[in-house]
From TrEMBL:
SUPFAM superfamilies: Acyl-CoA dehydrogenase C-terminal domain-like, Acyl-CoA dehydrogenase NM domain-like. Residues 26-137 form the Acyl-CoA dehydrogenase/oxidase N-terminal domain. It comes from Candidatus Chlorohelix allophototropha. Belongs to the acyl-CoA dehydrogenase family. Its cofactor is FAD. This is Acyl-CoA dehydrogenase. Signal peptide: none annotated. PANTHER family: GLUTARYL-COA DEHYDROGENASE, MITOCHONDRIAL.
Length: 397
């Protein structure tokens, strides 16, 4: 029998899942989605606007985030949940539907602080840090960016020299998520043997962290500067199993993967808010959702959300098969964040003046997405990574 198409009268699937992607998820993946979505609706959404306004991170949510198994959730053993990549992506999507700051917290902890210890640490380091990080007892941060080296981190000045059984660390790191709240910092520094990763514990003499104030984006997230002034750390705190830029760049693969999914959460929240608003806001005698120009905006948002969902799901399936290439992550990170920003802007316009307030989540997401566009490789850097992959020519320098 020939394949058939339903009629236009057949009820559509949900407005936030126009391609029935739900069908493509396993039961476990759906359960992760529903659990994290409920947590965001019940615990994050009621408080996040207040935290954004105050410029504070909702630390009170950490125990529950840990309880849900979201910290290092795609790692196995050491108290981690050991879920697949798609589940990790789905969790990031649901968290970022609440706020990019919450997803950032989980990304940094799992992908940027736990992942390097898990992948490149000694067995002693893994035993010492990972279970406490999975349970939320220890918070981690990741220090790669410096004041003069953002997109080009290989130029870093932070350095570590071996003196007896200690490394002496000097330099500074900038824009570090969770910096001042972290119990341990995974810091990348130049050594005689090339770039190495170090675990620096809070309170080590010579290590200070100061918060960056007056951000207009990611306000519900802590961002700090780290300073190392003859900071002596035990030689056993070096990550023994990696040297060179592939150390930090491989961690970025993990975090960028989560961001590609996360951006869709912010996008979905903006789209859903605009859709609901448009159906009830009456102007010229009818709901504004009945005007062609408003429908055009909503139709584009719905289409781009659907495309991003499919792109991300295949990204996750490739990761779970163990054949994901970093350039595929760049394609998804770049596309999804770009489209999320465009959707946020259009959604904001549908709310008119209401769109600029914190009463609705859209402007908060829109401002957050400006950071997401820049961190973990700017949009330009991902364009160049893709360009290099398809032409074979390096256009970075
Ligand atoms: P390049 O010379 O091309 O390569 C150096 C070595 O690294 C390897 N490599 C990778 N390994 C794993 N994954 C990747 N994606 C890799 N890309 C490169 C490469 O094979 C080579 O290995 P080997 O063994 O030959 O030494 O690298 P480069 O130094 O020229 O860098 C290229 C470039 C520009 C793409 C890279 O520097 C880059 O991605 N820049 C952007 C910096 C960035 O994204 N920073 C993010 C900081 S962390 C952050 O923003 C956290 S935000 C908080 C949150 O997530 O919420
Ligand atoms: P620059 O590299 O100075 O770039 C400025 C502009 O020049 C950009 O538009 C860029 O795309 C463009 N540009 C640069 N090079 C090229 C080129 N070759 N061709 C074309 N255009 C180019 N870093 C961490 O290490 N850890 C963290 O936890 C962390 N958290 C962050 C949290 C927030 C809220 C923010 C905003 C940033 C965070 N970062 C973190 C830093 C982030 O990774 C950097 O901001 C980012 O890599 C870009 O670096 P930069 O800001 O120095 O911009």
């Amino acid at each position: 029998m020939a394949a058939t198409v339903t009629t236009p009268k057949t009820p559509m699937p949900s407005a936030i899942d126009l391609y029935n992607i739900d069908h493509l998820l396993s039961e476990e993946e759906r359960m992760v989605r529903d659990t994290v979505r409920r947590f965001v609706q019940e615990k994050v959404n009621p408080v996040i606007g207040g935290h954004f306004e105050a410029g504070t991170f909702p630390r009170e949510l950490i125990p529950e985030i840990a309880e849900l198994g979201l910290l290092g959730m795609h790692l196995e053993g050491y108290g981690c949940a050991g879920l697949n990549a798609v589940s990790y992506g789905i969790a990031c999507q649901e968290l970022e539907a609440g706020d990019s700051g919450i997803r950032s917290f989980v990304s940094v902890q799992g992908s940027l602080a736990m992942f390097p210890i898990y992948s490149y640490g000694s067995e002693e380091q893994k035993q010492k840090y990972l279970p406490k990080m999975a349970s939320g007892e220890f918070i981690g941060c990741f220090g790669l960016t410096e004041p003069d080296f953002g997109s080009d981190p290989s130029g870093m000045r932070t350095n570590a020299r071996l003196e007896g059984n200690q490394y002496v660390l000097n330099g500074s790191k900038m824009w570090i998520t969770n910096g001042s709240v972290a119990d341990i910092a995974v810091v990348w520094a130049k050594t005689d043997e090339g770039i190495r990763g170090f675990i620096v514990e809070k309170g080590t003499p010579g290590f200070t962290a100061n918060d960056i104030k007056h951000k207009l984006s990611l306000r519900a997230s802590v961002t700090s500067e780290l300073h190392f002034d003859d900071c002596r750390i035990p030689a056993e705190n070096v990550l023994p199993n990696v040297k060179g830029m592939k150390g930090p760049l491989s961690c970025l693969n993990e975090a960028r993967f989560g961001i590609a999914w996360g951006a869709m959460g912010a996008m979905r929240a903006c789209y859903e808010t605009a859709l609901e608003y448009a159906k009830t806001r009456v102007q010229f005698g009818k709901p504004i959702a009945g005007f062609q120009l408003v429908q055009q905006k909503l139709a584009i948002m719905a289409t781009e959300l659907t495309k991003a969902q499919l792109l991300s799901l295949q990204l996750g399936r490739l990761k779970d098969e163990g054949i994901l290439h970093p350039v595929q992550i760049s394609i998804a990170k770049r596309n999804n964040v770009r489209e999320a920003i465009k959707a946020a802007r259009e959604a904001r316009s549908i709310l008119g003046a209401n769109g600029v307030t914190l009463e609705y989540p859209i402007s908060r997401h829109m401002n957050n997405l400006e950071s997401v566009f820049t961190y973990e490789g700017t949009d330009d850097i991902h364009t160049l990574i893709i360009g290099q992959a398809i032409t074979g020519m390096n256009a970075f320098a």
